[in-house]
Specification:
five-stranded parallel β-sheet; alpha/beta; 2 domains; two-stranded antiparallel ribbon; 16% strand; 11 strands; Helicase, Ruva Protein, domain 3; globular; 47% helix; Rossmann fold
Length: 341
């Protein structure tokens, strides 16, 4: 007979699939992105999105925020944005006196569930530092007190088209993100036609009305996330496979991984961190749970490997300029060459 936790896992799996279905009401052609965002929600990890302009990143995140419920805040990255702008804003009130109000981070206090930082690479490094602290600690000090955000999940969007007046998040700091998602325009001709000619995709506010609010009780996500991590198991053989993948991010040549025109002994400055591999396994447990299994299989790790690990592998400067063309090939080489059980 199933125990209470087993029943809870089944019930929440239904919630998760309903969540995905609701997001799909607002965006089309992004099924994999929707699944990975769902994984991040239940893994309680932050996400960095990258893609061309107008591919649906903002629409996706608005739908996610609506379906999760709780408070949602969005801020635009600009070159003149300062850290304090996230904490408070000052203005002249109706009585003609200066007034200070809480900014987007503090406004909702512990009810803040989703924070979207649009075009994060337009903001200065000082702003990145504050954002990363909030991500890591889910808290911030202001007005002589400590504010806690136990339910907070951060989504940041990086515009990869425009490079002027931008400040990239340092590679080591990007390790704070559970995953990096690359959002592309759907390749299906039918979907492209719908996006161009179906009027319902031309009104984003109307699209949001199709998404049922509060599908996931946001205050309960931390609890179910802990249960999933406790209940989904990884065999010793599977753990050894994951360790081999980790070692291969540091010394890929030892596993027979080679890239054309690359000195593999000089490629890697630093491989994935211990935190990164821990988050990989955390995400793999979510995938196993969504697929109604109580154990991780190699395919669960493979399904999330690139998105959780690629941004955690650092190249030596000689090859960093070619990162965009090399990292995907390296990740696929590791998955191909490291023997799966």
């Amino acid at each position: 007979m199933p125990n209470n936790q087993d029943r809870e896992l089944v019930d929440w799996r239904a919630h998760a699939h309903h969540f995905e279905q609701q997001i799909g009401q607002a965006v089309v052609g992004l099924d994999r992105a929707i699944r990975l965002v769902t994984v991040s929600v239940f893994a309680r990890g932050h996400v960095l999105l990258e893609g061309d302009v107008g591919v649906g990143k903002t629409t996706l995140l608005r739908a996610v925020a609506r379906a999760i419920g709780g408070a949602y805040e969005r801020i635009e990255g600009t070159i003149d944005l300062m850290p304090n702008d996230l904490i408070y804003h000052t203005y002249i009130n109706q009585q003609g006196k200066p007034q200070v109000d809480p900014g987007p981070i503090l406004k909702h206090e512990e009810r803040l569930a989703t924070f979207f930082f649009n075009e994060v690479n337009r903001a200065r490094p000082q702003v990145h530092s504050l954002l990363l602290r909030v991500m890591a600690e889910r808290s911030v000090s202001a007005f002589n007190r400590e504010y806690q955000f136990p339910h907070l999940q951060v989504f940041a969007d990086r515009n990869r088209v425009e490079k002027e007046e931008t400040f990239e998040i340092p590679p080591a700091a990007r390790d704070r993100f559970l995953m990096e998602l690359h959002i592309e325009t759907p390749q299906n001709a039918g979907l492209q036609r719908s996006l161009m000619f179906d009027p319902r995709f031309h009104d984003v506010d109307h699209l949001m009305d199709a998404v049922k609010p509060g599908v996931l009780p946001y205050r309960e996500l931390n609890g179910i996330a802990r249960i999933i991590q406790q209940e989904i198991q990884a065999s010793d053989t599977l753990q050894n496979y994951a360790l081999d993948l980790w070692h291969a991010t540091r010394q890929p040549q030892r596993y027979g991984v080679g890239l054309n025109g690359v000195d593999m002994d000089q490629l890697i400055m630093a491989g994935a961190s211990a935190r990164g591999m821990s988050l990989l396994m955390r995400a793999a447990r979510i995938i196993a749970w969504l697929d109604e299994r109580d154990r991780i299989i190699p395919e669960d790790i493979q399904a999330i490997f690139v998105e959780t690990i690629a941004h955690r592998v650092f190249f030596n400067p000689t090859y960093e300029m070619r990162r965009a063309s090399l990292i995907g090939e390296l990740m696929q080489g590791i998955l191909h060459q490291v023997a799966a059980p």
